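hiii so um. not sure if this is the right channel but i have a protein structure encoded as tokens and i wanna go backwards to a sequence. like what aa goes where. can anyone help
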């Protein structure tokens, strides 16, 4: 199966989307673009205690209100994972103390309970 390629505009729009969330005081702990085999396309993966605290439905609604209209066709679908998800926990364990992980590329590996085909990290705290 042919995969979508990670090119400049996707990365730039991920950076811009994260900046918009930061400006709206929506704290994000983990943010990355990722391809998981179960989806087969790029996902904008976010994790945060704030998003967990308001519930999944409200979290997706908040994200759609905050950044949805600005990236209608260009930002991949969002995927919110809880901080306790094994994938997020392992990412934080691996990179949480690293000074700057922005721009790190991952892929071809299992992290936590998920196989990550490809990934581009914006933030891991």
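sure thing!! here u go:
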């Amino acid at each position: 199966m042919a995969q979508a390629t990670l090119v400049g505009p996707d990365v730039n729009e991920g950076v811009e989307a994260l900046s918009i969330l930061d400006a709206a005081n929506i704290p994000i702990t983990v943010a990355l673009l990722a391809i998981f085999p179960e989806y087969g396309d790029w996902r904008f993966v976010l994790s945060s205690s704030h998003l967990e605290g308001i519930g999944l439905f409200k979290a997706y609604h908040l994200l759609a209100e905050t950044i949805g209209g600005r990236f209608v066709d260009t930002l991949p679908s969002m995927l919110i994972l809880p901080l306790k998800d094994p994938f997020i926990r392992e990412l934080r364990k691996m990179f949480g103390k690293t000074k700057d992980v922005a721009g790190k590329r991952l892929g071809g590996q299992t992290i936590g309970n998920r196989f990550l085909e490809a990934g581009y990290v914006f933030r891991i705290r």
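oh and Residues 8-124 form a domain with the GMP Synthetase; Chain A, domain 3 fold (CATH 3.30.300.90).
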